[in-house]
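Data card: per-record layout.
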Amino acid sequence: MRRHRRARIIATLGPASTTEYGIRALFEAGADVFRLNFSHGTQADHQARYDIIRMLEHETGRPIGVLMDLQGPKLRVGNFDNGSVNLEQGAKFRLDLDAADGDETRASLPHPEIFSALTDNAEILLDDGRLRLKVISHGSDFANTEVLVGGTLSNHKGVNLPRIPLGLSALTDKDKLDLEFGLNMGADWVALSFVQRPEDVAEARELIAGRAAIMSKLEKPAALECLTEIVDLSDAIMVARGDLGVELAPEDVPAEQKRIVREARRAGKPVVVATQMLESMVHAPAPTRAEASDVATAVYDGADAVMLSAESAAGAYPLESVSMMNRIIERVERDPAYRGYIENLAHEPEATTGDAITAAARQVAETIDAAAIVTYTTSGSTGLRAARERPTVPVMVLTPSLPTARRMAAVWGVHCVHTEDAKSFPDMVEKASRIAHSEAFAKPGDQLVITAGVPFGTPGSTNVLRIETVVG
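The structure for this 472-residue chain is written out next.
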């Protein structure tokens, strides 16, 4: 099954999309990668969905990526006497470590890391920013605040501290248990939530030990202050606009989104734009025009993938949501202006043999109007380089590594085929020609631009470029 669009779709699975029929329908509608959200559901739920994905992959012969999304450190208030309280603007409100139920004057906040990080006049946001508090005084186990924006506050609502780095690891004890389970299950990508600093990525990489690729979720303003370092340490980036949109001013989010996408593209790392992309389709069969424009903007910016969350996991129209996202992407990529946007955001290749060969492959392929660029890769690095070039011709990646093929499902413009590595130049040419023909990329007489590394099977050794004609 070949996708004719370049940008990819990640669909979250959940109660609305948990059956074999439902998952198959989402894949056929356009989902390239499936997200398993470990903030919800049990490990058994995720295992059952994973097994369906792998069965579908076997039946279709198409590598399918699986992204496990860790919950990360969730900061929440405790319980209240009656389940909720109403906070009036201007009222005084205390947060402390006392586990007793709260009332209109105080609440439990069982996170000492917050109190140690607070400063005078700092803002504390509650319930996704619906309520705002200002710190008047604070100590190691309390904060006295004034209510700036009031409202109803109920049990276990979330807490955000804009622009205040917290001494918390991005991996909780729950995350570490889920991580080991997900890696043993066979997840291809690990989405690391609430990354604040490069050390968070380094900690996860040590635990993962090469068993999956790391997708760092940027949802804390603190992460934006060391964006380049986090991008360079990660295998991919997700612009997670949920919590980021809570802690940043709304007018800042679009500019930061574009900056993150540019930085990831500079580094040649896949970048995913996520959260509330077609939010109204949780309850409605069609998106708003603003939501359609939001998805389109991410595609015009050259994002590798766009992601559906509640729309496909818990909404009333999961299939329609994937189909709509597919239609929006295809329409953008037919726009004559699309290539101009993509070219404006292009970056110069790095001064390496691999980058030089890949950049030349794009230029040659476009000059001779080749049917496709065919790259051989073991680690996936050559495929990532080819995608970074954003060529006008299709990119077919041949790899002997099934994990690599699955990870590449999240990468812009790449059609990955799991096959044996080439053993010689004649074998390289024959295999590329035969597979390009069978995968409907080329017909006899078409030209292919082929890149590979010699000696064959050596990761990161791309040093050959060949032009070949597909034979009948």
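Known properties of this structure: The radius of gyration is 24 Å. The chain has a mean pLDDT of 94.

See the next section for split statistics.
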